[in-house]
What we know:
By secondary structure, the chain is an alpha+beta fold. It has helices spanning 8-15, 19-26, 30-38, 45-55, 59-62, 109-112, 138-143, 153-164, 177-185, 206-213, 261-273, 290-298, 309-314, 339-349, 351-359, and strands at residues 2-6, 63-67, 72-76, 89-95, 98-104, 118-124, 129-134, 145-149, 170-174, 191-194, 197-198, 203-204, 218-232, 255-256, 286-287, 305-308, 318-332, 363-364, 371-375. Helix 2 crosses helix 3, helix 8 packs across helix 14 and helix 8 (153-164) packs antiparallel against helix 15 (351-359). The radius of gyration is 23 Å and the shape is elongated. It starts with a strand and ends with a strand.
Amino acid sequence: xxxxxxxxxxxxxxxxxxxxxxxxxxxxxxxxxxxxxxxxxxxxxxxxxxxxxxxxxxxxxxxxxxxxxxxxxxxxxxxxxxxxxxxxxxxxxxxxxxxxxxxxxxxxxxxxxxxxxxxxxxxxxxxxxxxxxxxxxxxxxxxxxxxxxxxxxxxxxxxxxxxxxxxxxxxxxxxxxxxxxxxxxxxxxxxxxxxxxxxxxxxxxxxxxxxxxxxxxxxxxxxxxxxxxxxxxxxxxxxxxxxxxxxxxxxxxxxxxxxxxxxxxxxxxxxxxxxxxxxxxxxxxxxxxxxxxxxxxxxxxxxxxxxxxxxxxxxxxxxxxxxxxxxxxxxxxxxxxxxxxxxxxxxxxxxxxxxxxxxxxxxxxxxxxxxxxxxx
Length: 376
């Protein structure tokens, strides 16, 4: 048997309306609205439609049925991601009026330190749906924002947002820049982070956003400028100072996957130096993020890899700067009216976030929160 859940209060607060204002516009009493917000009453169809019209949303965002067992059905995020028992937990959010689940792998150190929203129950392979048992309230899950990207500074943003607005949670999904834009296009995240340089135009990110989303209106906001370079062992024993040095036969390199900003930077620098990728030992050895690359160098499994300076510092490594990249956040124009989007931009502009991010090393936050453009 299912019972009715209400997201009415959250939707009202997001719109900035007081109870009396919403009740008057919907043609109901304040007492009736209070009962509906608390979930103690069931709305008539006409009242539900009026509330949705006033709040500018769908009825399903205000009222929905929850199974007595407390389970949810969600779309499993990650194109081509294997569905195994190694991911028993997941991050969950409602994106464009549908539930999306990002599995937290037991083999990922970052995932082990991330509190889950739900436990995976079972999946339906044919339609990429998964059954979930929530660990948090439905109202809390509806407030979740999924932000993808490779830069570790996104964890700082998440912490600052939650500190400023208790109950507002940003969930960081570590993905490469290209994979982030694809996830945003599939509706698997609310916000995508990217640092991709287009050699033809000399622009960061914008050409890639235009190609990925065509004529769809998108907003691009600067997260920060970050330094990228080689992470090397303390004291730089291999004397790695320029791209040509990683082509030496004794140097073991570890690379990022195609579509990652660091991978594109490496390929660009190798072309400029006229060094074939085949000359780099470990060019085909791939890891999935700045922290993973730094960890491999710190453990002695590799001699160098391209990372953000903050990731090298976090693992006690030396850093050889190669480039300054602009890391942007991208989200659909229609989502900019959501109070959660406003909170992210306000946090980026805030002094606390800028100071903390800059303290990690390798970040220039002077343009953080600046709207680069609104693509149409």
